[in-house]
């Protein structure tokens, strides 16, 4: 993919809408060549309406899985994702709600299991971020909201899903390059992403005896609705230009990491690990 900048754009609401982005992200996995890696499996993907979550959900469907997607209120994006999953001949359940609410997490998992029959793969992907130039001025409510969505919601979803996950199941958590490099204007967001790394490693150790693998993915700058919903138009236009590859990645370039980690045949000897599709940044850790 060529070096690129994007047309200046911003969205005044979060989470953002993929339908409003120009250009639209590459998130339909159109060039993916499936091989039945997830045949007969059922996956639940939070934030599955757009961006990375959409590409993961569609990729899972192409590999033979039925998929439940959770989203906050981006109905148009969610229904588009559902149509694409069903076009692959797979079943899809789309559920709207706030994963920061433990009750919603319980009900969403219950609905997914009732509708799709089981649960084999949990992808904790939903997140939000808000720019703050001066940490001394960061609103308490923003910090609490970011932690509630990004890490507490991940814990509530996992807690709700665990009774349904059997030996061979997989949990995949979305962290971020900011967990390793930090970000001076996204301190609360980066902190939640660091917590996700620790959560992934700790949960992996806790579930070893149950033979449930827990891994993470730490994307770098990816062209998703979170970008115009977080930054001003000028910064959005230059998104990803600072990466070693001098461009933003696309969701379709990230989703294969999740497919790999979801497949017991491919990643049976991996747990407690984090993959780094980030455009060439070496972060270690």
Automatic annotation (TrEMBL):
Gene3D superfamilies attached to this UniProt entry: NAD(P)-binding Rossmann-like Domain
Keyword line: Oxidoreductase
InterPro entries xref list: NAD(P)-bd_dom_sf, Sc_DH/Rdtase_CS, SDR_fam
Region (Disordered): 1-28
Molecular-function annotations in GO: oxidoreductase activity, acting on CH-OH group of donors
Polar residues bias (residue ranges): 1-12
PANTHER family: NADPH-DEPENDENT ALDEHYDE REDUCTASE 1, CHLOROPLASTIC (PTHR48107:SF16), NADPH-DEPENDENT ALDEHYDE REDUCTASE-LIKE PROTEIN, CHLOROPLASTIC-RELATED (PTHR48107)
Database matches in NCBIfam families: PRK06701.1
Family, as annotated: Belongs to the short-chain dehydrogenases/reductases (SDR) family.
Protein name as it appears in the record: NAD(P)-dependent oxidoreductase
Organism of this sequence: Falsiroseomonas bella
């Amino acid at each position: 993919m060529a070096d690129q900048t994007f047309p200046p754009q911003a969205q005044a609401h979060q989470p953002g809408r993929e339908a409003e982005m120009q250009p639209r992200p590459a998130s339909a996995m159109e060039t993916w060549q499936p091989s039945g890696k997830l045949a007969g499996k059922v996956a639940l993907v939070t934030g599955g309406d757009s961006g990375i979550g959409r590409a993961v959900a569609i990729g899972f469907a192409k590999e033979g899985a039925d998929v439940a997607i959770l989203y906050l209120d981006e109905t148009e994006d969610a229904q588009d994702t559902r149509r694409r999953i069903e076009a692959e001949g797979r079943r899809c359940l789309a559920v709207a709600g706030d994963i920061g609410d433990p009750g919603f997490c319980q009900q969403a998992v219950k609905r997914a299991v009732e509708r799709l029959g089981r649960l084999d793969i949990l992808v904790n992907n939903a997140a939000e971020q808000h720019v703050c130039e001066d940490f001394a001025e960061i609103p308490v409510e923003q910090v609490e909201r970011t932690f509630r969505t990004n890490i507490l919601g991940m814990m509530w979803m996992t807690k709700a899903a665990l009774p349904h996950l059997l030996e061979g199941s997989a949990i995949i958590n979305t962290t971020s390059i900011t967990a390793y490099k930090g970000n001076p204007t996204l301190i609360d967001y980066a902190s939640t992403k660091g917590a996700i790394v620790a959560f992934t490693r700790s949960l992996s150790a806790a579930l070893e005896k149950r033979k449930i693998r827990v891994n993470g993915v730490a994307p770098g700058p990816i062209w998703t609705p979170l970008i115009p919903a977080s930054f001003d138009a000028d910064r959005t236009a230059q998104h990803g230009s600072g990466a070693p590859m001098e461009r933003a990645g696309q969701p379709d370039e990230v989703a294969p990491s999740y497919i790999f980690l979801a497949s017991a045949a491919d990643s049976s000897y991996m747990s407690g690990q984090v993959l780094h599709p980030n455009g060439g940044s070496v972060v270690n850790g």
